[in-house]
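User: For my dataset I need records formatted as: sequence, then structure tokens, nothing else. Please produce one.
Assistant:
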Amino acid sequence: MEDRARAARALVFLYVDRVLVGVAALKRPTATYRDGKFRAAGVSALKSTYSLELGWVFVPPDHRGRHYSRVLVSAVMSQADNAPLFATTRSDNPAMQRSLENVGFARAGKAWKSKRGDYELVLYLAPPPNSR
């Protein structure tokens, strides 16, 4: 994980009253990882446009419901220099989906089963493919 964090383009830490209430990153994923996500979503033709990923967004349970994920997502996007971004989230996480949509991401392709657990993932893109 340390190597991945060092390779990230930006790490964002959100503090409120000196308490860490959230983290996020602008990641530089490998082409293999990126291609796998786009293939799983059924939108492989779009993969080469997206070299940066918004990820590692986490707000501890006792700080949720305060829109901190929106703040984190916006902060990460401000570090992307308007580059196209992709993100994945669980299909059963409407709060994160709203956070992504509120800053210009759009869902792309179909949901797919995660290899890490009994849930599905969805792909989000910013800007959406039809806005370019």
